[in-house]
Amino acid sequence: MDPVRNPYAPGAGQRPPELAGRARELDVFDVVLERIARGRPERSLMLTGLRGVGKTVLLNTLRSQAIGRLWGSGKIEARPDQSLRRPIAAALHMAVRELAPRHRAPDRIEAFLGVLKAFAQRSAPPGRAGAAPRLRDRWQPGIDVPAATGRADSGDIEIDLVELLSDAAAVAGDVGTGIAIFIDEMQDLGAEDVSALCAACHELSQLGAPLIVVGAGLPHLPAVLSAAKSYSERLFRYQRIDRLDRIAADQALCAPAEREDVEYEPKALDLLYEKSGGYPYFVQAYGKATWDHAPRSPITAADVRVAAPEAEAELAVGFFGSRFERATPAEREYMRAMATLSLVEGDAGGRDDMDAAVPTAEIARSLGRKPASLSPARDALIKKGLIYSGERGTVAFTVPHFGRYLRTQPA
Questions:
Q1: By the 8 A CB rule, do 307 and 286 touch?
Q2: What is the Cα–Cα distance from 54 to 173, expressed in whole angstroms?
């Protein structure tokens, strides 16, 4: 069939042609926005799940919902080596600029921008561990008003963020709307920044302020938040984003195809679900390869079998291989042991995807090492986002089918 008409989109964060299986999450967020619009209390939202389940796509869709309701919005992607201060200042700057044309008091906008500039330029106070000796960096946030003093500029990120977000919420309240800040890869925030964000959300929820944070991260994000503030378990609404069920996966494939007057045979859909496991990224990858190889409609199981090696080769390079290459030899040894053990654990648990969590003690035993000697490799893999610890004493891959991929690779 014509590859130009191929509707599937296996890209990082790229919205698929049919956002199947996420109606519940979209409805929940609509309720959150409406409740806040009516002055009702609401919690910020945290989306968690493995890589490839569409968290970033969903985050962008939720942002579109907020924009559609004339909210101010901004989005950032957390990085392990970057403080939250600058990116969240940029996100708030964007959000308030969206609200400014509807605000009746330009001086209120300028006053907030002065506070925002002071917050963005301020670093940690001298004497704090790991703090830079200078109070101000040379970086300028691109705000034309003078920096304010005495508000959100203490250098303590927790104090400053509470004050900054409170002021931003007040600006949104002036125009009868709200502000939503979207944070992707939220598990990569530093411990101090996570604590500050939790404190700010706690303060805002108590005030009933019209500002929410929508975060997305790996499955251990709740544990990261809980380690920062014990009350975070009650502070946020958590939604686990999982693979698609069979009905949703079929919809993700069939709906775009039908718009191009193309159909699938039932056995082709059976095989595509078996190959993809229902993971949205894999659904798109196998769908795209199958379309390109199918000579005509309807698409058959034979077409899927012919196309599957190409999809798997592309995943091996772009989805699995690129991550594997980031690991050191010691880290690869650790992951290979995980892959072997996850097969055993998956069989024992009756899992069909074989991506079971593995006890760290078993990994050490299989490698003939003491658990403490493997801690550097484990911690580095967690920091690189290749594995996570969902429960104490266990680790699992953040990428679906990664164990299966490793078991096919030569040692």
A1: yes
A2: 32
- Amino acid symbol at 64: S
Q: What is the pLDDT of residues 379-404, one digit of tens each?
A: 999 988 899 987 888 999 999 999 98
Report how far apart, in Å, the C-alpha atoms of 215 and of each of 130, 148, 181, 189, 212 are.
26, 29, 8, 11, 10
* Predicted structure pTM score: 0.89
Q: Rounded to whole angstroms, how far apart are CA atoms 201 and 232? A: 9
Instruction: Note the pLDDT tens digit of each residue in 169-204.
Output: 999 999 999 999 999 999 999 999 999 999 999 999
What values do phi and psi take at 235, rounded to 5? -80, -35
**Is residue 409 within 8 Å of 286, Cβ to Cβ?**
no
pLDDT at position 233, please?
85
Buried b / exposed e along 151-174 (16+ C-beta atoms within 10 A): bbbbbebbebbbbbbbbbbebbbb
d(CA 294, CA 20): 23
Helix 266-276 / helix 246-259 crossing angle, nearest 10 deg: 120
